Amino acid sequence: MKAEPTATSNLRPKHRRQSSLNVYDILFVLFKHKWKIAIPSLMGFAGAAAMFYWNLRSPNYETEAKLLVRYVLERSTVDPYEAKVEASGTHGMAVMDAELEIIKSTDLAIEVAAKIGPEKILASKAGPPSKVEAAMEIAKNLEIKAERGSSVIHLRYHHSDAAVAVSVLKQLIDSYFEKHLALHRSTGTFESVSRETDQARSRLTQTEQELTKLNSESGFLSLADAKTALDARRNAQRSALLAAQVELAEQQIKVSYLAAAMGAVEPEAPERIPDHAEESTPELMARSKAQEKFRDLAEQLALLKQRRNVLMISRKPGDPMLEALDRQVEAVQQQAQDLIEQYPALAGQARGQGAPSALSSGIDLNVERAQLAAVEAKCKALTEQTKKADEDMEKLSASAQTFTNLERRRQLEEVKYRYAETSLEKARVDEILKPATMPNIGVVQSPSVPIKAIAQTTRRLALGLAASGIVTGLLLAFLIEWVIDRRVSRPIEIQTRLQLPLMMSIPYIRSKDGMAKLIGKEPGHKLLGDVGDLTFPPEAHSGNGDCLAQEGEHFITPYASAIRDRIMFNFELNNITHKPKLIGLTSLLQGAGTSTIAIALAKAFAENGKFKVLLVDLNSSWSVALPASPVESLNTALNISRTDAFRRNPRSLYFAGAPTHRSSKGARSLASVEMHELMPQLEVCDFDYIVFDMPPAGPTSPTIAIAGFMDKMLLVLDAQNTNRESLSWSYAELGKGRADVSCVFNKTKPHAPRWVGGET
Q: Is the pTM of this model over 0.85?
């Protein structure tokens, strides 16, 4: 009989996103529990007012002062740190915070208490007060404030005695100046700084004396100058030695060439040079070429020696260019020696042509040998001088380490002495500086005339009481709404929190409308059937037993019509066209309004006269005793619906009782077995709609078993007595029978304005 649910028949959202807490949820709690919030808040405000009233009976006197912190000068005699930091602006926040902490310090409060006298500050104390107790009283009644970016410090002090208030604040300012000067300046250290300066001067004098003594012993005044002069002398000697060695090598080669050119060590008669006439033409040409080549070699050797002498002035020994020139000189000399060996007569011819060096045979061999001995003596002398310079350098290096250490120590002692002199000058200035004449901090306003005021502690306690009342009310409201109270408060919670489909929300309306106003009959109209098995649900009775019609519309009628339209749309959407269409209404508890909505819904289906509607009471809560038995009542209604008289009857709304059984306590309840037996007859009856008013869906209720036969189930919820867990369980149990269930939220009370949201 029931159509199989299609893809569009199940209107329940299966994967609806769980909504999070938003501002409308908070506003709803505030409006709903406004009295729970208001009462603790009023109690808190009352406590605050009582504290203010008590304070006015015993007033405190307040005096105010202002300090201007232009800058803070940080300097110390212990380390070289010194800085001047402006107190205003962003960079001065740390400076102002530090000054505030100095004023708030316990040491400063104890010092003020000792100078004023603890007995004056704590005059009301029974026993003799201590300085610590008086300091705690000062810190408790002292207010210190400084605006960000400002260089002004505001000081306020409260006391029950006006004179004591002014005295404490004045002494606090004076003690603050002294403490500020002691922390940021080098006060009280003049003697120690003077002693350190004398010690630094003594160490510097001793180091200078040791340095002078070393200079006298070493014979030089400056290590750098002595080292420079010795390096210059040694370099000059090495250069001269190198030049002499080169000259010696040249002279040795020259002598050896001359000796070889002259033929022997002892002089011999010169060989006669043959005349040109006696030589053949090829021999003359070869000799002429040899002479020309000999002259070229002589000129090349002269140029190479000249270039080498020039380079030896600016180049060091072992320079690649000097070595290359030496190799070229040796090559030219070797070529000349080869020519002389081949043509001995070239040695005599070279004298007449002025050939240089070893190429000229006109130079006396003894003279050259004497010059060679002179060069050798020169090299020996230069070697001795260079050795002596190296020894002097080694001696200087041995004394240099001691000299360097003394020089370094003298410089360090001089730096320390200069710093000590500077610190001594600062300490001398700080020693004569008075706290009242500090240039960086000034008094903008001296302690003012005391005025009556509320103490800071009293204000804080009063504000705390007022705030605690508000917070207590808010915590109580949210604790009840979200933790303790498990009932559904708003229709929107059914969709957002429980993820269940909601069809309609019906507000709570105070009305005297009863069921008789929903359904009645005109006086004198006879019921269908001779035995009265098919009747209307009577409520008010006339003298002859007929139901009287009521004037006006029942308050539930518009909502029932809206529910009817949505159910019919649901049937059309899911292609449910069979007859009859079964609609069941149930609830979680008695008194949710299921019967009223069932009667109104049946009347709404039957009001146009096109449909035959049967209202079946399965709840056994509002039906009257019928002439026939309850089983025969519903059974008879189904049988009569198939007669021609039923089809011709213009009436469209009918009533029938339900099969029940009596419990051991005498109460009647729905017999689910009999209802299952009647289901085949329900499928062949001629009613268009059958509306079932079912018992509440509890763990032992037969409604759970019957709901699966319905084409549509409406779960009526009492807005004041619907538990979230019970609703979730009942909906899940009804859904196990594949019932199409929608919720109707009845008796909704407007706890908050409609703009808060959540009302449908």
A: no
